[in-house]
Amino acid sequence: MPAGNYLHMVTGFCGRWIIQKLNRLGEILGFFVVCLKTALRYRTTGQRLMARTFIQQIYFTGVQSLELICIIALLVGGLVVIQGIAQLTRVGSRDVLASLLTVVIIREVGPLLTAVVVILRSGSAIAIEMGYMTVLGEIESIEMQGIDPLHFLAIPRLVGVTLAVISLIVFFNVVSIFGGFVSAWALVDIPFWALFSDLAREVDGIDIIVGSVKALMFGLTIALVCMFHGFRTGDAITNIPPQVSRAMVDCFILCIFFNVLISALFYL
Amino acid sequence: MRKPLISAENLEYCEEDGNCLFTEVSFSLEWGQRGVLLAEPHRCANILLKICATLFQPTNGTISWFGRSAEESDEKWLHHVRRRIGFVHRETSLISNMTILDNISLGIQYHEELIREQAYDRITEVLKQFELYEYRLLRPAALTFEQRRLAVYARELVKKPQLFLLEHPSLDLGERVYSFLLEVFKKCSIEDGCGFLVASMIPEVVNRWGDWVMVFDQGRCRHFEVGQFDPSIYRESMRRRGTTVSREWRNG
Amino acid sequence: MRLQYSTMERMTGAFILLTLLIFLFTVAVVGRGKNWFRKHVVFYTTFEEGYNLVSGSRVKLLGTDVGSVVEVSLSENNQARVKIRVLADYAPRIRTNSVATVESPTVIGSEYINIIPGTPYAPSIPPEGEIPTKEKKKLMEYLEEYEVGEKLENIGKILEDLAKIIGTIEAGEGSLGRLVKSDEAHRQLVDDLEAIDRFVATLQQTADHLARAGAKIEEGSIHVEKATREAPEMVDKVQELLDRLLRVNALMEKAMTEVPEISTQAREGMREVNLILESVKENFLIRPNLPPSPESESHGLEIRGN
């Protein structure tokens, strides 16, 4: 085959791939807009039932994940401090430990790791649940009750997951900093309150705002992408695994993308 | 004069690959009337019922419910119409992570802003009538096929619909339960003027349900008043397709 | 109103409340660290240029953080007008004769405004008032201040002197020059170095001997130490032997007093034995069979001095 044909194939493949990804992103954004419109249209309908679904979602995503998040946060906090002490002692800058904790945990690792845990635990569950409901005709049953499935299923999950992710990120940051402090105190006998006051000085208002914006974006992304793929399962049960897998990958990539984008917007 | 419950004109439904399941389907169902759709392959009837239930959109033609056409209807009105339609099709299922109580009372809880206990009180009588009361706290997976099918009927009846769209009404049901259901529907038809559109592959249903019959043959439909309907027309259609004739049909 | 709540509802409520509390606590801690909740007073200062001051740059009073820059803008007469906010507690210390300067921990970068408080008798500047300023020194001013030119001149002179010294050495003048340039001096130096080498080798040998002697001394000292440890025991044993000897001596003295009596008794016995022997010799049966009599010999049992 002539070299020109290979070039056409490669460029064609890349172009198609990019267009497909952009299309999917557009569809997800469209899904978000439809969700918002639905939420506004039925804002006064079915509040009690919605509240129950919303509470169930926060309980599942937030309360039940808390244990896992705390364990991971403690370990990560300790790890950052151990590495920080090991590296900073070499250059004699151990006093920037609080600054390191702020940059690594509060700004970057905390939100991203929490998002990963939520994607693995709740995102997959949501995608599978929606997929099964679509395949088994449960969505149509809900529609035939005069209930908009987006309103009944998507909105409480969207709000619940977002709120749970925000809460979990707050917990992750606090617990990992506590873990870091304990490690620092145990390893190099840095007084707890010295690190605490250093941290209070290092953390800026912008860090709190960035953390909140990231949490909001991650929560919305996870809920939206997982529900989007779940609703698109079609009518075959064999479509569920690939859709769930696609949802996980899309969630992960979008979360990393938003993490970089938000950090660049606020810190550059 | 009351407008027909549902009326369709020149409905057409084609799939994405261009294969049209049916074309030029027209009918009208008046209050208290019962219509039967006989179709082989049955997918035509299934899709037509979903179009009638507002779940699918036809690729061509017009359809209206209670005198209002699809073009005039927004999403909110369609949701309102769905509450007036009792739809039990072969795939209709209960929500698997809810109890029978919640499944049946879902619509009431959502639309009437009732707390659970109030909604449960409202459906207790129906549950007892359908012999589901003692299973009310179980999830659908713990019930038999017949009980699940009954729960679906109960869920639709609780809405107090004016139009019933039924697919294989006898599916998964024993004779006793089926007779009981027929009584319930009869009462609904007489007292509230409910209309019924029943889809089946078995011509026997015409005897029980039909005021008029619509037979799908090669994507087109033919209308008959119940007195004019000759089962051999449908038999011929089935033979052409090589479909196994049911025992009921052979006996008939 | 329904007042009975499920465990799930209660736990979810607690979770959200706890999150809110933690969030508020964090904001409070950070805000306290950043002085968000303390009252600030706004002042203005005007500089000839902006000196890289930006919104958020620190404002210090005698090197201590007391506020930050709010805004830097250009005034109509092309000067940098800087709006600063200072903690209300410190605002009264900024007086009409206070001076604000732009400083930085390095020569360039991280600029901050340092306020030098005036005398306590001068009146305080009211809020929104203007603080007098002193311009930041430029690089050339720093160079002048530290007399960099003069120092560079001195370095040049030092370099010239060094060049002269190297020239002298190259010419073979002076001790070092001669040493570098003359072959004889070089040979002499090599000989001296060899002699030093030999001396060092001898020293090395002596040091080895000394080391060996030291080792032996150490060994001897171990023995001495051992003997020192065992000395009390040996003294005890010697004492015991002496005691025994004394007892033996006493017995000997006692025995010596009894010796004359014993010798008398022995002499008597011998005499009797001689008599018996003489009688036997006289017997006719024995007499012919007797060997010749031996020569007389003292047996030591006679009385001394007899």
How would you characterize the overall build of this protein?
The complex is a heterotrimer of chains A (268), B (252) and C (306). Chain A is mainly α. Chain A has one domain (3-267). Helices cover 87% and strands 0% of the residues of chain A. Chain A has helices at 3-41, 47-63, 66-90, 97-135, 138-144, 149-188, 192-202, 205-231, 240-267. Chain A starts with a helix and ends with a helix. With 252 residues, chain B is an alpha/beta fold. Chain B folds into 2 domains: 1-84 and 162-171 and 181-223, P-loop containing nucleotide triphosphate hydrolases (Rossmann fold); 93-160, no CATH class. In chain B, the strands form 2 sheets. In chain B, strands 6-7-8-3-9-10 form a 6-stranded mixed beta sheet, with helices on both faces. Chain B has a 4-stranded antiparallel beta sheet with strand order 2-1-4-5, with helices on one face. With 306 residues, chain C is of the alpha/beta class. Among the domains of chain C are: 32-137; 147-181. An 8-stranded mixed beta sheet of chain C has the order 7-1-4-3-2-6-5-8, with no helix packed on it.
Give a quick precis of the structure.
The complex is a heterotrimer of chains A (268), B (252) and C (306). By secondary structure, chain B is of the alpha/beta class.
Indicate the topology.
The complex is a heterotrimer of chains A (268), B (252) and C (306).
Chain A: H1 3-41, H2 47-63, H3 66-90, H4 97-135, H5 138-144, H6 149-188, H7 192-202, H8 205-231, H9 240-267
Chain B: E1 6-14, E2 20-29, E3 34-39, H1 43-52, E4 60-65, E5 68-69, H2 75-82, E6 85-88, H3 100-112, H4 116-129, H5 145-158, E7 163-167, H6 175-192, E8 195-200, H7 205-209, E9 212-217, E10 220-225, H8 231-241, H9 247-251
Parallel strand pairs in B: 3-8, 3-9, 6-7, 7-8
Antiparallel strand pairs in B: 1-2, 1-4, 4-5, 9-10
Chain C: H1 7-33, E1 40-47, E2 58-61, E3 64-74, E4 80-87, E5 99-103, E6 112-116, E7 130-131, E8 133-134, H2 139-145, H3 148-170, H4 174-181, H5 183-282
Parallel strand pairs in C: 1-7, 2-6, 5-8
Antiparallel strand pairs in C: 1-4, 2-3, 3-4, 5-6
Radius of gyration of chain C: 60 Å
Main sheet specs of chain A: none
- The total of helices of chain C stands at 5
Series of secondary-structure elements of chain A, N-terminal to C-terminal: HHHHHHHHH
Keywords:
heterotrimer; A: 268 residues; B: 252 residues; alpha/beta; 2 domains; six-stranded mixed beta sheet; 10 strands
